[in-house]
Design brief:
The structure holds two protein chains of two kinds. Helix content of chain A is 54%, strand content 18%. Chain A is an alpha+beta fold. Chain A has five domains: 172 residues; 139 residues, 2-Layer Sandwich (Beta-Lactamase), CATH 3.30.450; 101 residues, PAS domain (Beta-Lactamase); 72 residues; 155 residues, Histidine kinase-like ATPase, C-terminal domain (Heat Shock Protein 90, 2-Layer Sandwich), CATH 3.30.565.10. Chain B has a nine-stranded mixed sheet with strand order 6-5-4-3-8-9-1-2-7. In chain B, 32% of the residues are buried. By secondary structure, chain B is an alpha+beta fold. The longest helix of chain B is centred in the first third of the chain and has 16 residues. Chain B has three helices and nine strands. Classes of the chains: A alpha+beta, B alpha+beta. At the A-B interface, helix 2, helix 3, helix 4, helix 7 and helix 8 of A face helix 1 and helix 2 of B.
């Protein structure tokens, strides 16, 4: 069983990818290598047993010189290996225990038990076996055996010595007999008769007589003179060895006898003696031989061989003991090494799958759901691995589904967040105020428009609506927030009037219920709309209609009235002076009022039929300078000052209409100043808002705050002879240009009219300059 | 039993430690040759006595090295020669076959029945011209080291590797 980090789950089709080389499996996890190792061990054991079986046939010398060395090397090697394996295992176990690895203690105990179960019996067997070997070797050599073999060897050796002495004596006697004989010119029949005696008596098997002749090297060389052999010696006559022995004796060497194995199985014991004259000079050599039968010689040899083998064994006793002990030690060490390795292997086999499972569980716990274990066995551990992998598959699938759900949730959350941001952006920018109130009556959200319209701030969020709207002019909102909800029935819209900085603001209120998934009421949305401009526009439109009708209905009869009045004046031109004066006065009044009515009707007509502006890019400063130039010298006590921006972008406007606006405002200012005071005309450029402002301020008495909004209403005038249309026309013209006009107090006193006109983008002011 | 095993092992080590016995070595440079004589202690023969009497072919090898001392470093070996004396006892005929070879060449061969003769033959050699003086520097100090090894090695179990059976050194000054 091995971990497969990153490998896909078995039931699933793996994703194609680069092939990851599998790590090399250790020896213990390779069944083929384990089998080969076991086979090698068995073969080694068989070899040892075969060698041990043949050890009795091997020469002791070979055993002590070669086998003992080889066994000692093997023993030492295995001993070192065993010590190494044990030391390594002990160190590993200590390290594992120190690192508190899972199952380290269990594994240590298992290894110790297995080793003890093997080591103790093996050592005991070694000690007992060693003692047995010592005893067995000692039993090889005992006194009866020593005595028996020694006696046998002595018998054989004595027999040989006796025969050798016999041959030597007979040969020496023959040599003495032949001392007087002339071997150089022998009488062969007499000589043969002289040496035939021992052969005839069977004391010798063969007698050979040599005369000594000078050789090429100066040494005497034996030359055959005569030989006498028994009837049985014909097949064993070997002249070469006899001549060599004769030559050796003739040269003075002490070896006077020799053994000569025969092809027939027997042996010849030869002895040589020098034939000397009376003066001591050597004239020849006599070689006498006696034949030992094959059976006799073989028996003697066997006895000697047995004795030699026995004594050689005694010589090699320590070495042989060492050989057998080494054999035994080697087998013991092989068993120990095998048992140790097997113990470690078993401990590993038992604990390793559990360790791998624990490690894999940690991997899974760490979030590596792709981690798998490879099943290598078909036992319970294999089933455990399958169950673990199945669990990991389920976890991985659950994790995958969870991740997908999470991604989906995140996507939806992002969408909701985008929608919320979009809604917030819309709510932040719309002019309509939106307030949400939860089911508990607390304010949930309050957009800037609502805060501005209602005069609230962000602190209102989270507070009860009853508390925020409960008092004052906002009370209708509190009532609207508290209206009970009736399914299928809408809440009625309301309009309220608020006073903001002296201005009346007309607001439209509407409430909408917020429903949850179960249609239960989760809150409500209050919508606040500033309908003041709408109301104002409606009023203007109404007044325009009135003006149009007035112009139409009044202007038509004015001309006949004026003509009639002028006719009456002409008719009564000849009348008496009092009548004429009365008529003139009356007709003059009629004509004057008609003219005034015409003027009034013209203004009405103009207000009602205001032409659309023809906007062209215009330099506002030039326009203002030209317009203000009309007032030069007209009012001695009125000073008109300008405070222009350094540069203004050209503004698309109708110069005539804007000039009229400026004249209206300046006229009003002069009138408000009662022709004594200062008027400031100022220009500003707001690049951010994309607008150009024209400010006309005076230091007159000012306008009460409650009257400021009414100033722009048609037919509202604070002047005795005003038509009330001047500022209405101003507002209309400015509105037609897409701008706005506002009135406010001027510091330290006076009134300040601000006209704001849209301008093109991209122009930036550099500063302001005063004139 | 364990104590017996320990005693045996201890004896084996002690025997091995005491195996380095002396060899009397003589060296004479003359007539262009270095003549070397060697005589091992009698104890060496007594160790081999049992092996010889058992009929084992017993060999005593004399490894002679002609060397010059080198300060600080290992001594320099100028030449080496090997003299082997083999003894084979025929328990049937009670005769010893003696052979001597120098560097693998048979130098002497004889048969003897005399133990004393065998002892003299086996335990040394006398004035063998083993080295040439051609490579020697005049008036320089040299020495001949002779190490003796025997076969069969009657050693003990567990630790068959022993040192030389005996060794000796003879110093001489080469005077041409």
């Amino acid at each position: 069983m091995a971990t497969r980090p990153g490998s896909p789950a078995p039931p699933r089709s793996p994703a194609p990818g680069p092939a990851v080389p599998r790590p090399r499996r250790p020896f213990r996890d390779n069944p083929l290598q384990v089998l080969l190792g076991i086979f090698a061990l068995v073969a080694a054991l068989a070899g040892v047993m075969a060698l041990l079986n043949r050890s009795s046939q091997l020469a002791p010398d070979f055993l002590s010189e070669f086998v003992l060395y080889a066994l000692s090397v093997v023993d030492l090697t295995m001993l070192v290996g065993l010590v190494f394996v044990l030391a390594r295992s002990v160190i590993k176990m200590l390290v594992e225990r120190k690192r508190a690895l899972p199952f380290a203690r269990f594994r240590a105990k298992l290894v110790i038990v297995l080793l003890a179960m093997t080591l103790i019996p093996a050592v005991l067997v070694l000690l007992v076996g060693s003692q047995l070997i010592f005893n067995s070797v000692d039993r090889w050599f005992n006194a009866p055996m020593d005595e028996m073999l020694d006696s046998a060897q002595r018998i054989a050796s004595d027999y040989y010595h006796d025969r050798q002495r016999q041959v030597s004596d007979e040969t020496a006697r023959l040599a003495r007999t032949l001392a007087a004989a002339d071997l150089a010119a022998p009488d062969l029949p007499a000589l043969r008769d002289a040496v035939a005696g021992p052969v005839t008596d069977q004391r010798l098997t063969l007698v050979e007589v040599y005369r000594l002749a000078p050789g090429a090297d100066g040494l005497p060389q034996p030359v055959t003179v005569v030989d006498v052999a028994s009837a049985a010696a014909g097949a064993v006559k070997t002249r070469d060895t006899s001549e060599r022995l004769a030559a050796r004796v003739a040269s003075g060497q002490p070896d006077a006898w020799m053994r000569e194995p025969l092809a027939s199985g027997g042996e010849l014991i030869r002895a040589a003696a020098v034939v000397r004259r009376a003066d001591g000079s050597a004239t020849g050599v006599v070689v006498g031989s006696v034949q030992l039968t094959g059976e006799m010689a073989a028996r003697a040899r066997r006895m000697t061989k047995a004795y030699e083998s026995y004594t050689q064994l005694r010589v090699f006793k320590p070495a042989l003991t060492g050989v057998y002990l080494s054999f035994f030690l080697m087998v013991t060490l092989m068993i120990l090494v095998s048992a140790t390795w097997m113990g470690l292997y078993l401990a590993k086999r038992i604990t390793r799958p559990v360790q791998l499972l624990a490690a894999a569980a940690r991997e899974i716990g760490a979030g590596h759901f792709e981690h798998r274990l490879e099943r290598e066995t078909v036992d319970e551990f294999g089933s455990l691995v399958d169950a673990f992998n199945a669990m990991a598959d389920e976890l991985a699938a659950s994790r995958l589904a969870l991740e997908r759900s999470s991604v989906d949730l995140q996507r939806k959350h992002a969408e909701v967040e985008d929608r919320r941001r979009f809604t917030e952006a819309v709510l932040d920018r719309v002019a309509t105020g939106v307030i949400t109130i939860d089911a508990g009556g607390r304010i949930g959200t309050l957009n800037p428009a609502a805060a501005k319209l209602l005069g609230l701030d962000a602190a209102a969020v989270g507070r009860p609506a009853e508390e925020v709207f409960g008092a004052g002019e906002l009370r209708p909102l509190a009532e609207l927030a508290a209206v009970p909800y009736v399914a299928g029935k809408d809440w009625p819209a309301q309009e309220i009037m608020l006073n903001r900085d002296g201005r009346e603001v007309q607001l439209a209120l509407a409430a909408t219920p917020l429903h949850g998934d179960g249609r239960q009421l989760e809150g409500r949305v209050l919508v606040v709309d500033d309908i003041t401009p709408l109301i104002r526009a409606q009023k203007v439109a109404a007044w325009r209609e009135v003006a149009r009708r007035l112009a139409h209905e009044i202007k038509n009869p004015l001309t006949p009235i004026q003509l009639c009045a002028q006719r009456l004046q002409r008719q009564f031109s000849g009348s008496p002076a009092p009548v004429r004066a009365l008529v003139d006065e009356c007709t003059g009044t009629i004509v004057g009022e008609v003219e005034a009515l015409k003027t009034l009707v013209d203004e009405f007509s103009q207000f009602a039929r205001m032409p659309s502006p023809r906007r062209v890019p215009t330099d506002v400063h030039q326009l203002l300078i030209g317009t203000l130039g009309l007032y030069e010298g007209l009012f001695a006590h009125v000073r008109i000052a300008t405070l222009f921006a350094v540069s203004l972008p050209p503004v698309r406007l109708d110069p005539d209409q804007i000039r009229r606006v400026v004249i209206n405002l300046v006229d009003n200012a002069i009138e408000a100043l009662n022709q004594q005071g200062q008027i400031v005309v100022e220009t500003q450029h707001d690049a951010v808002a994309g607008a150009v402002r024209i400010v006309i301020a005076d230091d007159g008495p000012g306008i009460a705050p409650e009257e400021r909004d009414k100033l722009f209403m048609p037919y509202y005038s604070t002047k005795k002879r005003g038509s009330g249309l001047g500022l209405a026309i101003v507002r209309r013209i400015v509105a037609e240009h897409g701008g706005s006009v506002d009135v406010g107090p001027h510091e330290p006193r006076g009134t300040r009219f601000t006209i704001e006109l849209p301008c093109g983008e991209g122009e930036t002011p550099a500063g302001t300059e005063a004139t | 039993m364990t104590s017996r095993l320990c005693v045996i092992v201890l004896c084996a080590f002690l025997a091995d430690a005491g195996g380095d016995r002396g060899v009397e070595v003589g060296a004479v440079a003359r007539d262009g040759r270095v003549y070397v004589s060697s005589a091992a202690a009698d104890g060496l023969m007594s160790d081999l006595e049992d092996a010889i009497q058992a009929g084992l072919a017993t060999t005593i090898t004399y490894e002679a090295d002609l060397r010059a001392e080198v300060s600080i470093w290992f001594d320099r070996t100028i030449a080496s020669a090997t003299v082997s004396a083999s003894v084979q006892y025929d328990t049937l005929t009670r005769r010893y076959q003696l052979n001597r070879s120098v560097d693998g060449r048979l130098a002497d061969s004889r048969v003897s029945e005399d133990k004393a003769d065998v002892k003299r033959f086996a335990l040394g050699f006398d004035r063998l011209p083993l080295f040439s003086t051609d490579e020697l520097e005049p008036n320089a100090e040299y020495y001949v080291r002779v190490r003796v090894r025997t076969r069969p090695r009657v050693t003990f179990f567990f630790w068959p590797w022993g040192r030389d059976a005996a060794s000796g050194v003879a110093r001489f000054t080469f005077i041409p």
